[in-house]
Amino acid sequence: MRSLLFVPADSERKIEKALASGADVVILDLEDSVAPANKPAARAQASETLKRARSGPKVYVRVNALDSGLVSDDIAAVLPGGPDGIMQPKTETGACVEKLVSMVGADMPVIAIATETANAMFGLDTYSGITANLQGLAWGAEDLSNELGAQVNRGNDGHLTDPYRLARSMCLLGARAAGVEPVDTVYVDFRNQDGFERDCMDGVRDGFTCKMAIHPAQVEAINRIFTPSPDQVAQARSIVAAFAEAGDAGVVGIDGKMFDIPHLNRSRKLLARAEAYGVL
């Protein structure tokens, strides 16, 4: 997966647009984008959407937080429809994921948003080995900035300020340590295409494999930027081929540059992703 598009679960019109957006995953949101009075209607609409015959994107549901008093009703409403996965907000440790898994079942993939509270920042080393259900760790700047009392989470230049750069880096490290996908956060200024594409490229550069979106117009750029380019695929193939020719060598030279085993491993992963997205 590359693109994960949030859509308020209480809006049938927006859900239809999301499903037609080209996103790899559509996330029916029962949490932050739904007003408290609309939670029952959102559950009903999510259930109806899930029960329909569907093709195209996978459909996940973001339930409410464990301590909200709402998550049991969320799960009871949507689980019979067979969502492809659950997104869990405001996780603070791996134990939060294990508790959710005990409620949704051992076969349900879970993506945890793992930096939305100050306390969560100190639990990013607790996700390793907890459950095979954990598919990815995502990070979020909006709830975290609210908890920290910050005025903004990006400076005048559009770049994240220090607390949120730290959260981003710690999520990336925590995900890789746990052996799951690192999921980059949303970019809320959806009309700023240049800034958004720069944010996507920064994510790919640093190792994120997918990104969350808040508007269908963001999906195309995410899919394009998070898909390995032809040049990247060509280089990865040349590295894999050079090592195959060299036998048991720990290092090879290509066009005057040296490549070692980490380059080989990275190339194999890139080619696997390219194959999954139909590039090869």
Task: Write the SSE topology.
Elements: E1 3-8, H1 12-19, E2 25-29, H2 39-51, E3 58-62, H3 71-78, E4 85-88, H4 94-104, E5 110-113, E6 134-138, H5 142-148, H6 162-178, E7 181-184, H7 193-206, E8 210-213, H8 219-225, H9 230-246, E9 251-254, E10 257-260, H10 261-276
Parallel strand pairs: 1-2, 1-8, 2-3, 3-4, 4-5, 5-6, 6-7, 7-8
Antiparallel strand pairs: 9-10
Notable traits:
two-stranded antiparallel ribbon; eight-stranded parallel beta barrel; 10 helices; alpha/beta; single chain; 280 residues; 16% strand
Walk me through the structure.
The protein is α/β, with parallel strands linked by helices. Helices cover 42% and strands 16% of the residues. The protein has 10 helices and 10 strands. The chain has helices at 12-19, 39-51, 71-78, 94-104, 142-148, 162-178, 193-206, 219-225, 230-246, 261-276, and strands at residues 3-8, 25-29, 58-62, 85-88, 110-113, 134-138, 181-184, 210-213, 251-254, 257-260. An 8-stranded parallel beta barrel has the order 1-2-3-4-5-6-7-8, surrounded by 6 helices. Helix 2 (39-51) packs parallel to helix 3 and helix 9 (230-246) packs across helix 10 (261-276). The model has no long low-confidence stretch (mean pLDDT 95).
Structural class comes to alpha/beta
**For the terminal residues, how far apart are their CA atoms?**
16 Å
Annotation field: number of helices: 10
**Biggest sheet descriptor:** 8 strands, parallel, barrel
Radius of gyration: 20 Å
Oligomer: single chain
Helix content class: 40-55%
Query: Mean pLDDT, nearest integer?
Result: 95
Shape: globular
SSE string:
EHEHEHEHEEHHEHEHHEEH
How many beta strands in the DSSP annotation?
10
Unreliable stretches covering 5 or more consecutive residues: none
- Strand content bin: 15-25%
